[in-house]
């Protein structure tokens, strides 16, 4: 009789544990999906910023009469400082 009681308590504890783990998994999946969406949005913003920077750099180079290589060298000099 005592063994049946212990087995019943163990089964109930196992069910509760499974429910808690299921809840945690669901929460983690939701957070992962949110992080993926945020990552995609940030990647899109980065691509847009990169495109704008390229256009600005090209225009600056044209207005100053510098080639891309010269601009890159100048940028590396500035970064080195």
Features:
81 residues; mainly alpha; 2 helices; rod-shaped
Give me the count of strands. 0
Q: Distance N terminus to C terminus? A: 81 Å
Portion of residues in beta strands equals under 5%
Domains, number: 1
Unreliable residue stretches? none
Report the sheet with the most strands, covering strand number, pairing sense and barrel closure. none
Calculate Rg over CA atoms. 29 Å
Describe the 3D structure.
With 81 residues, the protein is an all-alpha fold. It has one domain (9-80). The protein has helices at residues 2-64, 68-80. The longest helix is centred in the middle third of the chain and has 63 residues, at 2-64. The chain is rod-shaped. 0% of the residues are buried. The mean pLDDT is 88.
What's the arrangement of secondary structure elements?
Blueprint: H1 2-64, H2 68-80
What does this entry show, briefly?
The protein is an all-alpha fold and about 80 residues long.
């Amino acid at each position: 009789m005592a063994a049946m009681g212990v087995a019943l308590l163990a089964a109930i504890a196992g069910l509760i544990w499974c429910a808690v783990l299921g809840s945690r998994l669901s929460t983690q999946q939701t957070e992962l999906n949110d992080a993926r969406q945020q990552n995609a949005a940030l990647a899109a913003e980065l691509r847009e910023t990169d495109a704008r920077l390229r256009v600005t750099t090209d225009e600056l180079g044209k207005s100053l009469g510098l080639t891309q290589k010269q601009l890159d060298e100048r940028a590396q000099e500035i970064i080195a400082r």
